[in-house]
Amino acid sequence: MPTNYQSVTIRLLEAEDTALEKAVKALSTKRSKLGIAQLICTAGMEEAADLGFRPSTWPSSAQGVKVEWESPPRGREGTVPRRTITVPPLYYPVLTAAADAASVSLPLFLVGASLRWIARRKRAEPSNKALQQVHLPHHYSES
Description:
Elements: E1 6-11, H1 14-27, H2 36-50, E2 82-87, H3 92-101, H4 106-124, H5 129-132, H6 138-141
Antiparallel strand pairs: 1-2
Helix pairs in contact: 1-4, 2-3, 2-4, 3-4
């Protein structure tokens, strides 16, 4: 692993960790195995782009911007699992700027973005029965 990748440690609720595990399993195929870090980075970048932050326009897209973000995870009591992921160098400043603009830490931004991404994917892929079995906190099921 190149040394310019950034490590981010994320504390998860048990239900969030289970949702990520099940989503990864549901989206993996025999030919391509998805990893949790891939899902989290993809979800984070999609959420950052939705908020107006993109690697192609970095850093001008982040000049003092504050946004109203509707996807922060709720309640952090009882966090158990920790995951450490590596974030590519082009993604890290964009994700950090998006989290700052949303007034949340980068780990919370990534958790919320991931759960929202899974909810969107469930709606986009109703025929994936394993994905439909992934349980999300109620406020993500409606996003």
